[in-house]
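Data availability excerpt. The first of two example chains:
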Amino acid sequence: MPASNRRTSRQPRAFRRIRVNDHRRLSDIVAIITGAGRGIGRAAAELFAREGARLVLCSRTAGELHEVLRAIRAAGGTAVGRVMDIGSARQAQALVRLAVRQYGRLDLLINNAGILGPRVLITDYPVRDWAEVLRINLSGTFYLSREAATIMTEQGHGCIIMVSSSVGRAGRAGWGAYAVSKFGVEGLSQVMADELKTAGITVVTFNPGGTRTAMRAAAYPREDRRRLHDPSVPAESLLRLALYASSAISGKTFDRHNVPCTLP
């Protein structure tokens, strides 16, 4: 029986070593986190670094990326970063290659980066904005996931988490290209999970729900931000997904409140 088939009934190799009571539960993990300069991406990066993961981070904004890298390194964490456009296939490939060159492998990819685009009706949606939102949110996620899956297939293990949205599961007026891009991300996750189910790779989507981020503020400018969760809350859910990645959850969609707390 091929080695990849022998792994289908157990957790991917990188994640089986994690013991939930360890002080640094991700000490064996190399992870890429996109959109790590702010919001959920930054909160996840700082949390994963505290848990011992070796990180490759990216952001569109140099100042924000350098700030989070300084914070992680000052706290004793290990991280490198690149200012990049995830909507570039060439740059996506270079980011994955950086992880392998720097740390020797890639165990986890969190596709968190994305843009909102205009909150207008489809009939009023600017064509240029439509193309840009899909380029970043959907094509960028595809480029990175494709490159990561290639490395993970060679390793025989890995996990890809796609950050989605409630409007990527039930479309609502005024969400335009953002909603469509997240529907695409949900579909990409399902296709990849089915294709990679014998390769020891877990692929899931995650909806963080209402969170105090700049994107949320832009989407709902009149909303009382005090009622929203801090980015550290969905970051904890992302940590649990990474800890409990297995064939049992691959292909599934998760909201912040239903991420598993114990091994399947």
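And the second chain:
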Amino acid sequence: MNRWLAASRRTGGFTLIELLVAIALMALMAALSWRGLDGMTRAQAQMRQHSDDVLALQAGLAQWGADLDALAVQPNTPSLDWDGRALRILRRSTVNPGEGLRVVAWSRRNEATGGQWLRWQSPPLRTRGDLQQAWQKAGLWAQNPSDEERQREVRIVPLDQWQIFYYRTDAWSNPLSSAGAASDGQAAAPSIPDGIRLVLTLAPGQAISGTLTRDWLRPTVGGGK
């Protein structure tokens, strides 16, 4: 009888030590599972950020090419100008031809987090006075933007530095040393180069880093150049 009672006591439940060991194992498994889920979440966030960076760069380069493709030429009016800080472009609308002309500008600005590639765009322009004013605003925006002008800019990608070259007389050269360059709205419009080379030095730590070169040729220029 005593032996039967002792055996039933041993098999009737868990001891305190066994419960503590089981709880510790469950806690360890939960911690390992949490680390695995956290790692998966971080990996997915990094992949999304990588994709966003690539898409932003692709969209920026596509917009750059679209602005140059839509370059408008007007008598006694600048159409294209690089002053060492910003590239200003007079462009027409490719979606609604009756919308009027616009001035767009591309520039790089130093910020607390590093350099940033930016694009600015004016509202539709109806008169020559509006055009000249927008041309000057684009230049001022690249130097010391006001809060109002900042609202018209779009941030593209982080950028360490950039360079612009013009293709003229069968050679690439600095636009500031090219003959006929103009930098204000009152000067005679300079001749449009046969091509424009954009050289971007992308900031490290991004999805794409290093040096990237993009060449644009006027539609009337043969593919041999």
